[in-house]
Write a structure and sequence with these properties.
Largest sheet: 13 strands, mixed
Number of strands: 28
Radius of gyration: 28 Å
Low-confidence stretches: 20-34, 47-54, 108-143
Distance between the termini: 99 Å
Shape: globular
Helix content: 25-40%
Mean pLDDT: 87
Strand content: 15-25%
């Protein structure tokens, strides 16, 4: 053989012997490898319209292939020159030995089984395709859910109700996108974390040991694991050797190059108007549906095991899942929560049921109407990136919604997640309400987050306040309000870490383009994101029945993370000195209604009286809370057929001079431990539908990335180190004002 032929043979053999940059396609020839890689790129470009993260991934993919091929060619050149010094027989033996080894490896090898390196060098090697990625181990098939245990009555029950803090939006390794980011947390581990146990998170070393550990400063009262229902089966099959589809191209992409796998699957499933399953799911998707039953049982078992069945009632769980609808890249996601252990046989998913109306049909048909005590509700979230589709007033066929539609939606969706790690969805940034600029994303669709040239302003009806106003308009038209919802917060963690919301300990959420899968990045999250919020329920006791009833009646509020306590009542005859009474809550209930309710009456007695009381989060011994700055009441009303809004400062001091020492993140200035006010609406019109909700605002404090920059000793005068550019970016706020939002109280004028 000529030296040139030897180099070519050695190079081709190396392409098979050394793991490919992204994929290994059995015994296909090297040319077929590259054709398939090119096909993936073309398919992605067609599917995504060259939008979102695709251009970056495409460039990375091409660079990956070129570097890989060049490195192997150089190795072949060096080896062929060394072989030229050997006798011809020895030279032929080495060449044909390489060919035989390559054929054997192509037929029998598996490049996905060895651990990966978590060092910076190892992360680079993985990107370049020179390291191999470990395939996540699939848990053993679970048994049927255990019979529910009889819960003891709670020893402490308060008829005036107490605030219980929790997280209704939690993803674990059962979610496709979380697993792709390296999350290994199980639902059981997520519930243990919520109760105060430490949790090891990615990156994981070659020995499987977590390189980071996180822990809550205070346990939660309740939590709900809500893994994505769409790909429960696909995620399980791709991680289970020998399972149908395990050796499919899609599963190989997902295991070998998780980010590319995410784009590939996202383009076909989450972002489609008519989503479809992959062929490896079998006829009519049966294999993937069947495989979903295992994770679904695991979710139910974990909730049942973590539930405190004793009379101490320390911790409550609910069975839940996320229905992840995203037509055209617009987020219309819902978290579904069941009242007790009685649930659907399988979760409803966006692939088989691609409309919110279809989800509601399934919940009614497969749960609520069964007559065996099954009950469920859905919680919309991230309307800020919904493209205005979350709060549509049209049916799927384009016809206007009816009164029955409005009543149905209000009953099935009594709460809305107004705050989570992908931004605030309360209100659109505007000059009239400066606090509406809080934690706003600069893009209208999540898939545009990595392409600033595609960022755009969110269209109308993308925020909860806009929807609340639209509800008043529909109330006047239909006699029923489809958007009569309460407000909560949650995290949307993809680490399986419910309630991990403290700014100074933020480690990201394993969702988005920043990944800790292989190494800890300098900046743990995109600077536009935040740690997320909490849901707070006013209930008599910490039990499933009591908490679920609070969700149903909307006696709930959300916070951006701190554990502020907020009461909000409306009545007609509250005394001006109500705040001075020790029995504020008792008088509030006796003389009116709490947050989430409808104020009865016809307005004949004048303007309603609103009573709001807020207590600052005390924090813990080594991490005190931040004082309150002010309390506001946000009013919406109907005038001239359109919704109007106005914000009133009713307590505290917006100009108290409090600020933050950015050199230490220590707060400066005074604030309030407690604020309380009795307020009468000066512009009340008894003939106009209206609503009010309270917004409680803390003094300024350091935003999460300021803590990161402080720990890294970043000096912006000297220039920000690589990966920490956000520290010196003037567009990224260095401080925040944490807050709480109560559910509204509505006033409906008498008909006729």
């Amino acid at each position: 053989m000529t030296p040139r032929a030897i180099r070519l043979v050695l190079w081709l053999a190396a392409l098979v012997l050394v793991p490919l940059p992204l994929l290994r396609f059995g015994a296909f020839a090297p040319v077929a490898h590259y054709l398939l890689l090119s096909g993936v790129c073309v398919a992605l470009a067609i599917a995504e319209g060259a939008g979102g993260i695709l251009p970056i991934l495409l460039a990375l993919l091409l660079a990956h292939v070129l570097v890989y091929a060049l490195a192997l060619w150089l190795a072949a050149v060096v080896l062929s020159r060394a072989l030229a010094k050997l006798p011809s027989r020895a030279r032929a033996g080495v060449v044909w030995g390489a060919v035989a080894a390559g054929v054997a490896r192509a037929l029998l090898g598996d490049p996905y089984v060895t651990p990966f390196d978590t060092s910076a060098r190892g992360g680079l090697r993985t990107i370049l395709g020179l390291a191999r990625v470990e395939s996540p181990a699939a848990p053993a098939p679970s048994a049927p859910p255990p019979a529910p245990r009889e819960a003891s009555p709670c020893a402490h029950r308060d008829r005036l109700r107490r605030p219980f803090f929790g997280d209704t939006h939690v993803h674990t390794a059962l979610s496709f996108d979380a697993a792709g980011q390296g999350t290994r947390t199980t639902p059981r581990e997520a519930y243990r974390f919520a109760q105060g146990e430490p949790l090891g998170i990615q990156p994981f070393g070659a020995n499987g040991r977590a390189q980071q550990t996180i822990r809550l400063r205070r346990p939660l009262d309740f939590a709900v694991v809500t893994d994505h229902s769409e790909l429960l089966g696909e995620t399980r099959l791709c991680a289970s050797p020998g399972a149908p589809g395990y050796d499919s191209t899609v599963c190989r992409v997902v295991r070998r190059w998780p980010r590319l796998g995410y784009v590939l699957v996202n383009a076909r499933v989450y972002s489609q108007l008519a989503p479809a399953r992959y062929r490896f799911c079998g006829e009519a998707g049966r294999d993937c549906r069947d495989a979903a039953s295992g994770p679904w049982r695991e979710i139910q078992e974990a909730a049942e095991e973590a539930q405190d069945h004793s009379d101490a009632c320390r911790f409550t769980t609910f069975v839940g899942y996320e229905w992840t609808g995203m037509p055209g890249g617009n987020n219309i996601h819902r978290n579904v929560i069941f009242r007790n252990e009685r649930t659907q046989r399988l979760p409803t998913n966006y692939i088989d049921t691609p409309t919110a109306e279809g989800l509601w049909d399934a919940l009614e048909r497969e749960c609520i109407s069964r007559g065996d005590g099954c009950d469920a509700l859905a919680i919309p979230h991230n309307s800020n990136v919904s493209g205005g589709l979350m709060w549509t007033t049209q049916r799927p066929d384009g016809a206007p919604i009816t009164r029955e539609d409005a009543l149905r939606r209000a009953a099935l969706e009594p709460l809305v997640e107004v705050m989570q790690h992908k931004g605030d969805s309360e209100c659109r940034a505007n000059e009239a309400d400066e606090l509406c600029g809080y934690e706003k994303l600069p893009w209208a669709r999540m898939q545009d987050s990595a392409t600033p040239w595609r960022w755009a302003q969110a269209p109308p009806l993308s925020f909860a306040r806009e929807a609340l106003g639209a509800g008043l308009v529909q109330q006047a038209r239909l006699g029923a309000n489809p958007f009569r919802f309460g407000l909560i917060g949650s995290t949307d963690t993809h680490l399986g870490a419910p309630g991990h919301v403290d700014e100074d300990t933020h480690v990201g959420h394993a969702a988005g383009i920043v990944s800790s899968r292989f190494e800890i990045p300098p900046m743990p999250d995109q600077p536009q994101f935040n740690p997320g919020g909490l849901a707070v329920l006013w209930a008599e006791e910490n039990s499933r029945e009591s908490l679920f009833a609070a969700m149903r009646r909307r006696e709930a509020y959300g916070t951006s993370g701190p554990r502020m306590t907020v009461r909000f009542f409306a009545g007609w005859d509250y005394p001006d000195d109500l705040c001075a009474h020790d029995d504020f809550a008792a008088r509030g209930y006796a003389g009116g209604v709490p947050m989430g309710a409808v104020l009865p009456g016809d307005g004949a007695r004048g303007a309603p009286t609103l009573a709001v009381w807020a207590l600052a989060d005390a924090g813990v011994a080594d991490h005190p809370g931040t004082p309150l700055q002010r309390v506001q009441i946000v009013k919406l009303w109907l005038e001239g057929g359109a919704a109007r809004e106005r914000v009133f400062d009713v307590a505290g001091d917006a100009h108290d001079g409090a600020d933050v020492d950015l050199g230490t993140c220590a707060p400066r200035g005074r604030g309030f431990v407690q604020l309380c006010e009795v307020w009468r609406d000066p512009h009340f019109d008894p003939a106009a539908p209206a609503l009010w909700y309270a917004r409680v605002v803390e003094n300024p404090s350091c935003r999460w990335q300021s803590y990161v920059c402080l720990r890294a000793h970043v000096d912006c005068d000297a220039g920000a180190p690589a990966g920490l550019e956000a520290c010196c970016d003037a567009s990224v706020p260095k401080t925040i004002q944490e807050r709480a939002w109560t559910s509204p109280i509505w006033y409906d004028p008498p008909s006729g």
